[in-house]
Amino acid sequence: MDALKIGLLGAGNVGAQVAKTLVEERELIAGRVGTGVKLIGVAVRDVEAPRDWKIPGELLTTDAEALVDEADLVIELLGGLEPAGELIARALNRGAAVVTGNKALLATRGGELHKLAEEQGALLHFEAAVAGAIPILRPIQESLSGDRITKVMGIVNGTTNYILDQMDTTGAAFEDALAEAQRLGYAEADPTADVEGHDAAAKAAILGTLAFHAPFSIDEVYCEGITGITGDDMEAAAASGYVIKLLAIIEKTEAGAILRVHPTLLPRTHPLASVRGAFNAVFVVAENAGELMFYGQGAGGQPTSSAIMGDVVSAARRLRSGTAEVPGLREQAADSAVPALPIKKAETQYYIDMVVADREGVIAEVARVLADHHVSIESMRQPGSVSAEGEVDVEGVDKKGAVVQIVTHLAREKDLDDTVATLKGLGVVKAVNSVLRVEVEQ
Amino acid sequence: MDALKIGLLGAGNVGAQVAKTLVEERELIAGRVGTGVKLIGVAVRDVEAPRDWKIPGELLTTDAEALVDEADLVIELLGGLEPAGELIARALNRGAAVVTGNKALLATRGGELHKLAEEQGALLHFEAAVAGAIPILRPIQESLSGDRITKVMGIVNGTTNYILDQMDTTGAAFEDALAEAQRLGYAEADPTADVEGHDAAAKAAILGTLAFHAPFSIDEVYCEGITGITGDDMEAAAASGYVIKLLAIIEKTEAGAILRVHPTLLPRTHPLASVRGAFNAVFVVAENAGELMFYGQGAGGQPTSSAIMGDVVSAARRLRSGTAEVPGLREQAADSAVPALPIKKAETQYYIDMVVADREGVIAEVARVLADHHVSIESMRQPGSVSAEGEVDVEGVDKKGAVVQIVTHLAREKDLDDTVATLKGLGVVKAVNSVLRVEVEQ
Questions:
Q1: What is annotated as the active site (chains A, B) (predicted)?
Q2: Does residue B340 belong to any structural domain of this protein?
Q3: CA-CA distance, B127 to B136, in Å (whole number)?
């Protein structure tokens, strides 16, 4: 058979690396696929722009549509919703295979694009969209296809993990850690998508879609970023044996799925707690497999290009053997539909940090409020220490009152909200500093 | 299309769980595959034997060959070389798909069976053969198919990891830790295959075959077990910040591949160092992807059945869509042949623990021997401590002499062997207690 014609859309950091691999490793790729592959063009906005790897001039074009119309396999690395979405739809409509790393697009229009791929019998691969080089989507779609996934928790945004790790290890303030991340190129000039959790939320939607065999969009993901995390939060968490991580959590309950992204206290002994710097890791719980963890580099041109090229080889093998196959979404007939539930339905543990009046009976009053809302206390701590007899000593008490830190047992988000609202209205509570969710080991 | 006919060979711990899933989760599996699946029979030696899950009597048969001849997909869970090998060959010759977890067979006759599968256009899946529930083979075959894997290091035997972890954390002797592992069911009555490293060596051959796209057999794996590891070794390693793990290591050098299994010192900060108890983990280094780690349960009926069922769904999807595809081995045309090299060609760091005469000039004499054999010293330690001025104090010295522990820089296995032989012949060296290999972070 003739060499497979590959069209590449976009030549940024990842795109240039992919072009380099397709040109320089052409024989290796052909060997792995079992047939020749040929990069027939690279669509860019500006032919003259400087690139990590100098793409041969004859490959560059500004006519993305013509390139899509000629290719057997289209690699989309433009990012953003348009024209990426339109070009992918155009390729799928022709029956061409598509490999993309576009998480924003998949989290917004994934359901529609999967459906189009199915109707056209076309391939749509997107391993690079979540956790860069870490193979996580294929294991979920294939290796765990005979099991039931109940929960996925991931550190899927390297920028925020770097920032939180810096705050934890060096005591840096959020702003300083962010500035350092920007200086090192881990964070963009406008860091909103990362620090507000939007990037992680897109990945949560994709993970949920594959793990629960039902299409979820980013609008169904509860999202809370890390801009509110202070050095005090970090320090208080550390003092109690926790570390704060931004997690994307997807979870199946009897009623449906809950997808959420928020800063989370993790015990230092949790496998995810030791994920440092800009690394990513995804923790998966399945009924039979038990607990699994996948760890590696979540971003960067080279790691991401590895995931893209894995998808390219995979898709090319299937094109060669004449089968389109998009497992995971198409094969869901027997899985009952899984609705997305609002965060109010979530059950998790909570950490509450507050300042109360320093007088007798206050703790009892606070505990009463929690009990009234069906929130039970796993541990209570006053900075300073509680003596063996249960007497609270006077460190941690200042003119403003005494700091009290509570970790609850599993509680419903709604009950917790009501609890916090009531606490805030209580005369003896001077301030609620922080309310954060906690994940303990399964 | 009619329901796919599945024949199961073997109904032990894993087999009974697989039968249970195929019967009880038939709708889920059918949904995931996109067509019906039907367990048509379970071949066993003794129909009356007690089992974890009571398989309906009408499914049980002692005629494995007849079952193989009727099935579209054969799940082989008999273990051992025969009749497993013969039955798998029989199924492949018919063009039936085969799913197996038989590492001993694959590590011995894998090349031949892969070839047969290719010739017949039949599927051969075996994710469960390495690291139980952890998806590691499919990521290597598919996700990393566009990258070059340079090294894989795995804790792939839960029994030995449990024993070493017990020795490390409780100070238990090897014999006591082994007895405890046997009591808990982690080790068999005859623990040879585990503690001598044979099980890990089989997995190393399989990992090497997939990672380097060339067939390796267990005979090409250097293999050293953990029976020689003493409490003293453990303690000395701990004192220097290391932990001892049994690793399966496969590595590509310019001249070829080196496959080896041996006890290895790892810095406590290495991602593999914190893998506890009977868990497994595999660390993969690829040119573009960088460092990846996969972690989870490596054995047990439920976890292993998850991997088997993932392969079953995957194979059934391909049968439904009419393609046989065995990526990884067939597609190796353009990868240059990779010969297996003997352990003598390995380059690694070494730890040497010895007793020397306690008099002036001895260390210089020892250092001279290493230098003469092109082995350079990364660190030297005398139990007791070296004072700030570099003076060695007298702890660690007894009537027999002084203990000296050396960690070398990267050295060739052959040079190290010669070094140790020379040291043993040296008048001032009273004993060489241990020689162990060391892996540091990349």
A1: 203 (proton donor)
A2: no
A3: 7
CA-wise closest residue to A208 among A89, A106, A88: A106
Domain of residue B384, CATH code: 3.30.70.260
> Does residue A31 share a domain with residue A8?
yes
Amino acid in the structure at residue B223: C
Q: Which residue, chain included where needed, has tokens 């001892």? A: B244
**Are residues A312 and A255 located together in one domain of the fold?**
no
Please report residues of B whose CB lies closer than 8 A to that of A327: 32, 314, 317
User: How close does chain B come to A132, measured CA to CA in Å?
Assistant: 8
User: What gap in Å lies between CA B259 and CA B208, rounded to an integer?
Assistant: 7
Give yes or no: residues B316 and B358 share one domain: no
Selected residue of A32, A311, A323 to mutate for chain B interface (largest B Cβ count, 10 A):
A32
A169 lies in the same domain as A291: yes
Whether residue B34 and residue A330 make contact (CB cut-off 8 A), yes or no, is yes
B260 & B170 share domain: yes
Express each pLDDT in A24-59 by its tens digit: 999 989 988 988 999 999 999 988 888 878 899 999
How big is the CA angle at B293 (ends B290 and B294), to the nearest 5 degrees? 140
Whether the ipTM is more than 0.85: the answer is yes
Structural domains in chain B (count)? 3
Residues A402 and A284 placed together within one structural domain of the fold: no
Select the residue of B289, B322, B331 nearest A34 (Cβ to Cβ): B331
Q: What is the rounded average pLDDT for all residues in chain B? A: 89
CB B411 within 8 A of CB B348: yes
Beta strand ranges found along B231-358 (DSSP E): 242-252, 257-267, 279-286, 290-297, 347-356
Say if residue A406 is exposed, middle or buried (CB neighbours under 10 Å; 0-12, 13-18, 19+): buried
Segment A174-204, tens digit of pLDDT: 999 999 999 998 898 999 999 999 999 999 9
Q: CB-CB: which of A33, A274, A309 is closest to B147? A: A309
Residue B189: domain span: 137-297
Of A147, A310, A333, the CB nearest to B144: A310
Q: Is-contact A155 A293, C-beta < 8 A? A: no
Strands B4-9 and B73-76: parallel
Backbone phi and psi for residue A150, each to the nearest 5 degrees, phi listed first? -105, -25
Helix (H/G/I), strand (E/B), else coil: B397:
strand
Q: Which residue in B5, B20, B151, B203 is the catalytic one?
A: B203
Structure tokens at B92: 């492949």
Give the contacts of B345 (CB within 8 A, at least 6 positions apart).
Answer: B253, B255, B256, B258, B412, B413, B414
Q: Which of A84, A72, A67 shows the shortest CA–CA distance to A12?
A: A84
- Residue B336's pLDDT is what? 52
Instruction: Assess contact for A298 and A158: CB atoms under 8 A.
Output: yes
The answer to whether B393 and B384 are in contact (CB under 8 A) is: yes
- Chains A and B form CB pairs within 8 A to the count of 221
On whether the CB atoms of residues A30 and A97 are closer than 8 A, the answer is no
Band of pLDDT at residue B365, cut at 50, 70 and 90: very high
Contact between residue B205 and residue B156 where contact means Cβ atoms under 8 Å apart: no
Gap between the Cα atoms of B103 and B298, Å rounded: 13
The distance in angstroms from the start CA to the end CA of chain B is 51
Among candidate residues B33, B174, B11, the one with its CA nearest the CA of residue A334: B33
Give the pLDDT of residue B333: 35
| B333, part of any domain | no
Strands A149-155 and A279-286: antiparallel
Q: CA B270, CA B264: separation in Å to the nearest integer?
A: 12
pLDDT band at B385 (very low <50, low <70, confident <90, very high): very low
- Tally Cβ neighbours within 10 Å of residue A418: 16
Kindly name the residue from A5, A203, A245, A252 that is annotated as catalytic.
A203
